[in-house]
Amino acid sequence: MDGNPEAAKVHLSVRGPLARPLPQLQGQYLKRSADDYYEWQKSNRPDDNQFILHDGPPYANGSLHVGHALNKILKDMILRVQIQQGRQVDYVPGWDCHGLPIELKAIEQSDGKQLSAIETRKVARNLATNTVLKQMKSFRSYGVMGDWDRRWTTMDGTYEIRQLQLFQKMVKKGLIYRRYKPVYWSPSSKSALAEAELEYRDDHISNAAWVRFPIDESWRTHSPLAPLAESVSPATRLYAVTWTTTPWTLPANQAIAVHDDLEYVIVENDGVAYLVAASRVEAFLAKIPGKVSSVTIQGHQLNGLKYTNPAQGKSGKPQPIIHADFVSADSGTGLVHLAPGHGFDDYEVCRGLGLPITAPINNEGVFTQEAYPDDPSRLTTAPSVIEGASQAVIDLLGQDVLASEKHQHKYPYDWRTKRPVVIRATEQWFADVAFIKDEALAALERASFVKGRSEWCISRQRAWGVPIPALYDSNGAAIVTEDIVGHIIGVIQKRGINAWYLDELDDPAWIPTNLHGRGYSRGTDTMDVWFDSGSSWSMMPGQADVYLEGSDQHRGWFQSSLLTRIAAGVVEGSDFVKGAPFKQLITHGFTLDQEGDGRHPVTPYEAQGQSCPGPPKFDALGADALRLWAASSDYTRDVVISVPVLSAVHTALVKYRTIIKMILGSMHASARSAPLSATDHIAIVQLKDTMQEVKVAFSNHEFYKGFNAINRWVNNDFSAFYLEALKDRLYCGDGGGVLEPILNGFLRMLAPMTPSLVVEAWDHRPEWLKQDTAALHPLQQLYKAPLVNPSRLTLNLKTVRNDIPVLMTVHAAIKAGLERARSDKVLGQSLQSSVVLTVPDEAAVKTVLDKYAPELGAMFVVSSVEINAAVDGQAAWKYKNEFELDNGDKGTATVLPPRDVKCPRCWRPDAAGNSC
Predict the structure, then answer these.
(1) Which CATH fold topology does 27-162+535-639 show?
(2) Contact yes or no for 211/245 (Cβ under 8 A)
(3) Looking at the DSSP assignment, which residues form a beta bridge with residue 500?
(4) Which of 28, 601, 669, 904 could form a disulfide with 768 if both were Cys (CB 3.0 to 4.6 A apart)?
(5) pLDDT digit string (tens) for 447-474?
(6) What is the Cα–Cα distance from 151 to 132, expressed in whole angstroms?
(7) pLDDT score of 620
(8) Which residues form the Methionyl/Valyl/Leucyl/Isoleucyl-tRNA synthetase anticodon-binding domain (predicted)?
């Protein structure tokens, strides 16, 4: 990792890195600070103190965006901090390669040709393979280190076998089953979706409708309703009224729900009576005028009544009015139409009562003939349910629709196609999450994202994925057992996974011998990609110290990893804490542009100063610029990347490079043995304290706090104080003070954020330092390594630390006076002034100032500093500034012209007029 002859050829005549890194060397610096460094730590950090960061696999579907860069750089900085603290890190990058987006791209490339399943898989694999290589190249250009040669993908044969074996363990525990029940269904993708594959939009517009359902006349003889029957004419027809935002679900209606504890009334209008909740009368009358009856009915008195559904025509049978806990007094009419084939809550209530579950729409969301058997074409010719079928149902119902309206509300969309989804009952495979929920919750300290989940739909109707290893009989009934899955895994290991799609569905090789001749065949469903990526913990050598992904992964990869890990039941005898695959979860926000839009942020290429396309927007500062932006960002919330943000980052990076260049050009070997001044001791304390603050921030993964601490030290402690005091010493051949320890400490702090700059800076170290074989590369130094040999220290650092606030307060007062003198144009260089400090004789501040009195002039860069001396009343000018310390001590700093003659060499006045 040390310097090499090629790098030496381009060194500057003035030692130090260029203000901009040379393009021809950036690749070399990246390799040495990433790939070479990762290999070095594998051999030089202990195997028994390993830190594992497991990769949440990015999706192999196109170019990387700046969110990917934020994610990978955060991970990389965490790893580098661990190496600095003495641990060996293990980081094996991975990719998620199955799923619909890649399959759709494969289909798009077919130019309209109908692809078979095996053809689709071939094109999809090629797409994913090429994308992985491109994305890997980009990640490495960010200076991200890792075991790239051991990278894994979810489409690797070994990975797929591990996943199938995990599925087999879940089958053995009875956690896998197939059921006809509602799932999120995407008509645009023609597949079931998981909750994590949804995004919700607040601007969805639905055709909402107020619909009446005629209640069977037997209600009049229902004894609890006798007072109601007496209050209306015998000729009055009673209707239940519901309000729905999905009229297209009315053909699947199987019940109407009320709440036992709500009060209901009737509203009479033109010879008919409408049943609504008392709390919703006002909203109802705003749509349908009428007279409100004085008789009220409790919801439980309505249980057992029957009604007919006009959306089912003459073939419709009487259906029940039932109780449901979720019926609200605050919305709709207080009565809810239940379509158990199109609603999760509806399904649970109706299934418990043994009511039919129907969902008369096909994969594209178009009505089937079962939707309206009396005249099927009335609905089968309508648009899909997300493109206007609700209006077709409204038209079919005619006068039974009392009112309709456009209603804007929150609605789920397919996150890939950006089209609305529906809830549709289909035959799907599920994992029983309820069985393992308590154990999963026990594995987490904050697990709210698991609490509401009882089932996980793990099947998809696509070709590009890992097949669900189940068999089906001639009637379509599924069978899956541990032995069947084991047999199928064995065939896949021999023939390859593509044989599942190449062989005839009833090929006997896939059927266990004991099932031959019984009409079994294979299915075509594939596993949810979240099951794919959620199985990745099986690639780890142990429990991960950290999982770090975007905040959306709480209901995605974090959850699928936890659930598969718990479901696998392999915690016995392991050191996994409470069964979770991770010890710590870290999330980051999304990346946004200056206007808060997440769709058009600056690209990683632009942030590095590369054109993509067109001229670059920023100086070509390379990976360090992108990394420093990531480090400077409070990633616990959404992160902005914009021209102003990057300009500020670039300014900081240029300042770092300038400081390093100055230090490297000013260091001398003689400084190693030169006596240390009080100012040197102060500089060491300020550096050590900053390094400790940065260490704590970095250890807590709060890189932005470390970045801010470094900048505060650079601007206030180093540049405005120590460097200002050091300039004249350097000019006079002092040898560098404590610049070498400062360089080491500065580079150690920068190492996780800008490792390429650290390597470049070390290449430019002076020859005497290169010849010192004991001098470790900053990337190789332990963070706790001492900065200065304790034998060189002549002052107690703890005492100096306590004195610094006093000295800095006085320094600020003096600087304020100097600035006023400059503003009035009576002063140029600060050495053309003297200072008188006036403080109480018995005050603590006096004790501190006396302690450093011989060096105060050099420390504050003035010609002289006197304590409690008389202020020359005849001085040509003077500027007085008061100061106050935290302990209440007060004092005054008076800036005056110098008392003595200026030395022509060092410009410091001397009473005898001598030259230095």
Answers:
(1) Rossmann fold (3.40.50)
(2) no
(3) none
(4) 669
(5) 344 555 567 889 998 899 999 999 999 9
(6) 10
(7) 56
(8) 681-832
SS3 810: helix
pTM assigned to the model: 0.84
Q: How far is CA 65 from each of CA 62, 146, 196, rounded to the nearest angstrom?
A: 9, 20, 20
Q: Could you tell me the fold of the domain covering 195-420?
A: Isoleucyl-tRNA Synthetase; domain 2 (3.90.740)
C-alpha 316/C-alpha 816 separation (Å) is 90
* 773-781 contact pairs (CB < 8 A, 24+): 777/1, 777/2, 778/744, 778/747, 778/748, 778/751, 779/1, 779/33, 779/37, 779/751, 779/755, 780/1, 780/40, 780/44, 781/84, 781/744, 781/748
Encoding tokens for residue 375?
Answer: 């005249």
Q: What is the DSSP string of 77-134?
A: HHHHHHHHTT-EEE---EEB--SHHHHHHHHHTTTT----HHHHHHHHHHHHHHHHHH
| C-alpha gyration radius of the chain | 38
Kind of pairing between the strands at 591-592 and 639-640: parallel
Nearest-5° Cα angle at 767, 766 to 771 = 125
CA nearest neighbour of 679 among 746, 744, 734: 734
**pLDDT reported for residue 368:** 95
Q: Do residues 90 and 541 make contact, with C-beta atoms less than 8 angstroms apart? A: yes
The domain spans of the chain are 27-162+535-639, 176-181+429-527, 195-420, 645-795, 798-910
List the CATH code of the domain at 645-795: 1.10.730.10
- pLDDT, one tens digit per residue, over 436-446 is 666 666 666 54
Torsion angles phi and psi, residue 884, rounded to 5: -140, 135
The least confident of 581-595, 616-630, 769-783 is: 616-630
Question: Predicted confidence band at 901 (pLDDT cuts at 50, 70, 90)?
Answer: low
417 pLDDT more than 50 = yes
**Tokens 């807590």 appear where?**
700
The answer to whether 55 and 80 have CB atoms below 8 angstroms apart is: no
> Does 213 have pLDDT greater than 60?
yes
How many CA atoms are closer than 13 Å to the CA of 119, on its beta-carbon side? Answer: 8
Q: How much of the chain exceeds pLDDT 70, in percent?
A: 90
For 95-111, the pLDDT digits (tens) are: 999 988 899 888 888 88
Residue range 494-540, pLDDT digits in tens = 999 999 999 999 999 999 999 998 999 999 999 999 999 999 998 88
CA–CA gap between residue 291 and residue 338 (Å, rounded): 28
